[in-house]
């Protein structure tokens, strides 16, 4: 989780980390805060709330 004020490059940094992880053959999930909250709530209800996954 990357936290900080608006405009400091959180999304850019997360994208760069994710891109490198994909190049290394890892699976990556990207969530914005609202989607992550919904995903966690869905997990509690045992629903299949999947993030955007890229390999």
From TrEMBL:
Signal peptide: none
Gene3D superfamilies found in the cross-reference section: P-loop containing nucleotide triphosphate hydrolases
Every IstB-like ATP-binding domain range: 2-46
Record Pfam families: IstB_IS21 (PF01695)
SUPFAM superfamilies: P-loop containing nucleoside triphosphate hydrolases
InterPro entries, per the entry: IstB_ATP-bd, P-loop_NTPase
Entry protein name: DNA replication protein DnaC
Source lineage: Bacteria, Pseudomonadati, Pseudomonadota, Betaproteobacteria, Burkholderiales
């Amino acid at each position: 989780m990357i936290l900080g004020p608006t405009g400091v490059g959180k999304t850019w940094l997360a994208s760069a980390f994710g891109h490198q992880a994909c190049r290394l053959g890892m699976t990556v999930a990207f969530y914005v805060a609202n989607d992550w909250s919904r995903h966690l709530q869905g997990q509690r209800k045992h629903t299949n709330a999947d993030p955007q996954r890229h390999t």
